[in-house]
Amino acid sequence: MSMNVQALSGGFSAPVFDSQAVFRSLMDGMARPGVVQSITTKIGQPSPLGKAAGAVALALCDADTPIWLQPYFAKSGVADWIGFHTGALLAQEKSEARFVFLQAASGLYSFDLFASGTQEYPDRSATIVIEVSSIGKGSELVLSGPGIKEQRTVSVAGLPDVFDEIWKGNRSIFPRGVDVILTTGDRLLCLPRTTRIG
């Protein structure tokens, strides 16, 4: 199978520096849920992957982190691009993936089939990156929990109405559960499993 030429393009121009910058943004985002982070690094990701989602892949994925792509991404050059730049391979089953890339518009139903860790090792869970249509406009999410003083309100467009129920289900198995990163264009915000919505 020939690799898409687009897969060989892009990537971090200064891998160590750029990866550290994105990693810092993600750590800040996880420590302060709902605070919007902007990715300024050029990465040349293939369509339909957004810049922030591509930056997450480059900063966090490697040969030891199987990924799962929603068919919308899997049918494009995204898998080859992530694989070429990070060494990450596609997971055969959703439960094997450490990082998951979804597009909200293509449908979200449940996180149940993805790894949620165990009581002894809750960190052995998936991080789910969800592309939405907008951050800063749309429906309001009222967040509370660790890293948030009282509450924080963020606006997100593109999440399905069932997201509240999906998130409640995720919260109900704490300390197990998945962590979520919402992305759009060059913006992202983090929803660690400790965050309450509503």
Automatic annotation (TrEMBL):
GO molecular function, one term: lyase activity
Keywords in alphabetical order: Lyase
One Pfam short name: PhnH
UniProt key word Lyase: yes
Domain of life: Bacteria
InterPro entries: PhnH-like_sp (IPR038058), Phosphonate_metab_PhnH (IPR008772)
KW Lyase (keyword) present: yes
Protein's UniProt name: Phosphonate C-P lyase system protein PhnH
Biological source species: Pseudorhizobium halotolerans
